[in-house]
Design a protein that fits this description.
The chain has 278 residues and is of the alpha+beta class. It has two domains: 19-57, no CATH class; 72-271, no CATH class. The protein has eleven helices and four strands, in the order H-H-H-E-E-E-H-H-E-H-H-H-H-H-H. It has a four-stranded antiparallel sheet with strand order 1-4-2-3. The longest helix is centred in the N-terminal third of the chain and has 18 residues, at 40-57. The protein is extended, with a radius of gyration of 28 Å.
């Protein structure tokens, strides 16, 4: 008779409690070691790994966040979606209106460095306008600061020979007083608009004039690409040479693909909302 095939012995598995016992013993040893013998950074990193392990040990899923209507981040996201749904108006012929809130400016011209966002749904600049009265509850009480702010940008653009105000449109959203800052912050993080100073690319459109001392710092990148404001022309140097600005813009558009359609914007905003993502 053929000999029986010997059965394979399964390796002995340690129980789940054994590693925990060893870990507890190691923690006790660390507590006795002089603080000079280990770094806080390493202990913090290990603590994070343990915290992640504790999360995985819980078999019951938990939501990534609790919906709080007063959370500024959520408010900013919803305002951004509302703004994207608004009609676009020509910046050059925008009529006067009441209200404060947030706005976005879009470029549709042929200036070569801006080609990736031209004629798209991706703003070149976003901003906010706050009412003088922090308790203003109606648009009429808020005043006309939102319209006035857009008018300031139009007049600045009209001074630049490399730009035409007729190539720009805008969207705006009148919002309840107090929510402008949260909304603007989210819009900047979402779109990373190249004219916003926070992105550190082609900043400077919001400047209202430099004194002699400030001029020593050189022209802003915006005034370098779009010369025309008299006080900026008095500066003898640029903060960035034109070639560098254009190079940084190419890298920016490569790393942060512009939104071409409203659908992609709304899809991105909605993708961040699920509490129990896959």
């Amino acid at each position: 008779m053929p000999s029986a095939i010997p059965s394979r012995k399964r390796p002995k598995r340690s129980s789940a409690s054994e590693p925990l016992v060893r870990l507890s013993e190691l923690i006790q040893e660390l507590e006795l070691v002089s603080r000079e013998n280990y770094s806080r950074a390493k202990v913090t990193a290990l603590a994070k790994r343990l915290a992640d392990l504790a999360e995985k040990a819980d078999l019951v899923r938990r939501p990534s966040f609790i919906f709080d209507p007063s959370d500024p981040t959520l408010v900013g996201r919803f305002v951004a979606m509302m703004l994207a749904a608004q009609q676009q108006f020509p910046l050059s012929t925008l009529g006067k209106f009441y209200g404060t809130g947030v706005y976005a400016i879009y470029y549709h011209g042929g200036f070569k460095p801006y080609k990736p966002i031209s004629k798209s749904q991706h703003p070149i600049y976003v901003g906010k306008a706050k009412p003088i009265n922090s308790k203003a509850a109606e648009a009429t009480a808020q005043g006309i600061k939102l319209w006035a702010r857009l008018g300031e940008h139009r007049r600045t653009i009209e001074k630049a020979p490399t730009l035409q105000s007729s190539d720009f449109t805008c969207r705006f959203l009148v919002v309840a007083t107090g929510y402008e800052t949260a909304a603007e912050h989210y819009l900047i993080q979402l779109f990373r608009p190249i004219w916003n100073s926070e992105i550190k690319l082609c900043y400077g459109i919001g400047k209202h004039g430099d004194d002699a001392e400030t001029r020593k710092n050189g022209r802003s990148p915006w005034d370098t690409l779009h010369p025309g404001r008299p006080w900026a022309l008095k500066s003898k140097t640029d903060q960035k040479p034109p070639a560098r600005i254009e190079s940084e813009l190419r890298v920016h558009f490569r790393d942060h693909k512009p939104y071409k359609t409203l659908g992609t914007i709304l899809s991105h905003c909605l993708s961040e909302i699920p509490q129990l993502p896959e």
